[in-house]
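Narrative of activities, Objective 1.

The group set out to show that a structural description can be obtained from nothing but a protein's sequence at a throughput compatible with the screening campaign. Below is one input-output pair from the validation batch, recorded exactly as produced.
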Amino acid sequence: MKKTLIIALLGLIAMFSPSSLKAQTATKSGKKILFVVTSTSRKGNTGKKTGYFLSEVSHPWKVLNDAGYTIDFVSPQGGQPPVDAFDLTDPVNKEFWDNKTYNSKINNSMKPSEVDPSQYAAIFYAGGHGTMWDLPDNTDIASIAAKIYENGGVVAAVCHGPSGLVNIRLSNGKYLIDGKHINSFTNAEENIVGETDILPFMLETKLREHGAIYEQSDPWQVHVTVDQRVITGQNPMSATSVGEAIKYALAGK
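Output recorded for this entry:
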């Protein structure tokens, strides 16, 4: 069953969220949540810096950590991933960055070969332009996501994070996103930031090409879509609401 959760609903839910937890141990359900971040530090051959967008990690982390879930991190190369939009005036960014356990975990992210998909109730792809280069064709992480999904888990992503979903195939050979309501950073938003000539592809276009029923709101509005345990958010403003949607999906709501 498909639900579209937009600013009015999830903005309200987000105001009533709870708070705290630790590393590599079991969650309240006996499983954990895996966050995927990019290893790419430059936008193509331009020399422009990129990485994972800090608030797109910290804001979902805040919701899920406060709900009692344990979060692990994986990146294509493992180790210390590059960070973008490093803004510690954002109190949630600061809380995440000052948390010694999670600062250590994200800066020592796992390699895909170190991940056991059976441990995870959900996988979440954080955004940042870097994802556009190293996540679409990463078959190891795609395989982890497919296994989590086919084990009954949740697959989620925000902003450019859905670039990691475009090529995930299930055991029946179909794309994970085929026939599902999906959103992401839109072509309109990409045109506004003015870097379409740098990108390897346009994310909205690629999602449509692989069978997604694409949804969007006006630029910079909160928009989250939930369809058959796949959760996607449009932009950085949607990150908290994606965390809320993951929490409620795992609670069976």
